[in-house]
């Protein structure tokens, strides 16, 4: 799986560099995609880590729960704000 | 599985006894540095470095606050991920399969495929960046070096185990400290830097928000959640309890579990503090060199200043959202049609800061 990603990446990287694409723009684009994808994955992490059947004694306590959901809110809010400004 | 579960408490007690014997020694904490530190360093990958550098170059100290704000958030999230691995001995992928029903797993699988696509794109961009870096050093064409780098990494992956490569990468973490060195090599107006770190500023423009979500997204990246858990499970497998199994904390003696949890937390928090300190250093250093239009002394890895679109007329709208990055407003990167709701919020420039003159110039905008 990981090898596959590296192989695809190498082929694509070669193509991009031959096409003269600005790597910095590409890297920032990847960062934007990660930022948009962060909130659904944070949701998943919070649902797993707050589940007592899975986590037992190590289930999130108050501080982790608060900061975790706060992070989810911040990332979701940033994505929504970006969507709103891009639309107009 | 049951065999090891029965054998563990015995071995666990031996481990905890040896743990107690050197209790209080800092050596235990130093040895505990591993998955957390590596994850923290992976956070400052080329995508991170490029994004932070763009933030510094385009908006000066204007996004420095993000490096402080993301620290508690990122540390909490990575600690949570780490704890899921400690509690279960499983990585996040396995836990998703346990937690969610079939229908949800399909949706999550689709999300993971998107994430893999983004990561393949990330690898591609990294390789182009390496090629470009070598090209800037006059070592040859970009494409050639991109291919060489890709094939070398593939070769290393095939030939050596992950452990060997991880050990090398841990040493390479030190290279990230070069950006901290730059911080001390360039002249920085520390009171301004601190003010911008502590007081958040947001500009509601597309350019600023796009880069802000990039900064947030490259710091709190989904792949790091997975990375943290797999690194921790690998580390647990190598512990001298439970053979090659990762023994969950609930199957360990209470004191041993507590000690493991404490050391792991220290590792994660140290790694995230390191990561965010490097982030702070990159933004501040590029802001002081490229961002302020100052003659660049020595910037970390070759980065190009933003491509600028010179504007024939300096409009107030232009000034209102780009004054931060550039005093003259002439090489600003205003999009031809800036968002109509462009406005600035609490832009507190202490007098004497590089942007103060720009602020005066554009004072009518606020």
Task: Please give a structural write-up.
- The complex is a heterodimer of chains A (about 90) and B (about 375).
- Helix content of chain A is about 85%, strand content about 0%.
- Chain A is mostly helical and about 90 residues long.
- In chain A, helix 2 (about 25-50) crosses helix 4 (about 60-85).
- Chain B is mainly alpha-helical and about 375 residues long.
- Chain B is about 65% helix and about 0% strand.
- Chain B is built from 16 helices and two strands.
- In chain B, strands 1-2 form a two-stranded antiparallel ribbon.
- Residues about 1-20 and about 295-365 of chain B have low confidence and may be disordered.
- Classes of the chains: A mainly alpha (about 90), B mainly alpha (about 375).
SSE topology:
The complex is a heterodimer of chains A (88) and B (366).
Chain A: H1 2-19, H2 23-49, H3 52-55, H4 62-87
Helix pairs in contact in A: 2-4
Chain B: H1 2-21, H2 26-32, H3 35-43, H4 46-59, H5 65-88, H6 92-99, H7 102-136, H8 142-159, H9 162-172, H10 178-185, H11 190-198, E1 202-203, H12 206-219, H13 222-237, H14 254-291, H15 316-322, E2 344-345, H16 356-361
Antiparallel strand pairs in B: 1-2
Helix pairs in contact in B: 3-13, 3-14, 4-12, 4-14, 5-13, 5-14, 7-8, 10-14
Structural features:
heterodimer; A: 88 residues; mainly alpha; 4 helices; B: 366 residues
């Amino acid at each position: 799986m990981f090898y596959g990603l590296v192989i695809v990446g190498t082929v694509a990287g070669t193509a991009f560099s031959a096409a003269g694409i600005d790597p910095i723009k590409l890297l920032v684009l990847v960062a934007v995609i990660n930022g948009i994808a962060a909130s659904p994955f944070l949701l998943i992490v919070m649902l797993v880590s707050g589940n007592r059947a899975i986590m037992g004694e190590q289930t999130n306590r108050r501080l982790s729960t608060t900061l975790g959901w706060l992070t989810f809110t911040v990332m979701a809010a940033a994505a929504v704000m970006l969507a709103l400004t891009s639309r107009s | 599985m049951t065999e090891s579960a029965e054998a563990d408490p015995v071995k666990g007690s031996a481990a905890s006894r040896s743990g107690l014997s050197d209790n209080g020694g800092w050596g235990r904490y130093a040895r505990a540095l591993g998955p957390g530190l590596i994850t923290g360093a992976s956070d400052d990958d080329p995508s991170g470095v490029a994004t932070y550098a763009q933030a510094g170059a385009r908006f000066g100290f204007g996004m420095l606050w993000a490096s402080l704000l993301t620290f508690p958030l990122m540390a909490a999230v990575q600690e949570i991920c780490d704890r899921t691995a400690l509690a279960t001995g499983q990585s996040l992928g396995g836990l998703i399969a346990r937690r969610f029903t079939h229908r949800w797993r399909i949706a999550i699988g689709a999300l993971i495929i998107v994430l893999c696509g983004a990561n393949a794109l990330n690898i591609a961009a990294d390789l182009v960046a390496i090629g470009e870096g070598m090209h800037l050093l006059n070592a040859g064409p970009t494409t050639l070096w991109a291919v060489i780098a890709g094939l070398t990494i593939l070769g290393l992956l095939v030939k050596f185990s992950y452990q060997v490569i991880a050990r090398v990468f841990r040493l390479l973490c030190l290279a990230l400290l070069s950006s901290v060195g730059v911080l001390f090599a360039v002249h920085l107006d520390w009171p301004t830097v601190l003010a911008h770190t502590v007081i958040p500023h947001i500009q509601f423009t597309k350019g600023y928000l796009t880069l802000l979500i990039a900064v947030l997204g490259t710091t709190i990246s989904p792949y790091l959640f997975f990375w943290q858990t797999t690194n921790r499970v690998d580390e647990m497998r190598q512990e001298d309890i439970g053979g090659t199994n990762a023994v969950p904390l609930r199957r360990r003696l209470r004191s041993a579990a507590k000690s493991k949890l404490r050391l792991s937390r220290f590792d994660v928090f140290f790694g995230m503090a390191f990561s965010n300190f490097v982030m702070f250093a990159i933004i501040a250093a590029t802001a002081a060199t490229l961002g302020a239009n100052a003659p660049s002394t020595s910037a970390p890895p070759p980065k190009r200043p933003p491509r600028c679109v010179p504007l024939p007329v300096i409009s107030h709208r232009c000034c209102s959202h780009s004054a931060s990055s550039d005093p003259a407003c002439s090489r600003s990167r205003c999009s031809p049609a800036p968002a109509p709701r462009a406005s600035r919020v609490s832009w507190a420039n202490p007098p004497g800061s590089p942007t103060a003159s720009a602020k005066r110039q554009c004072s009518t905008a606020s």
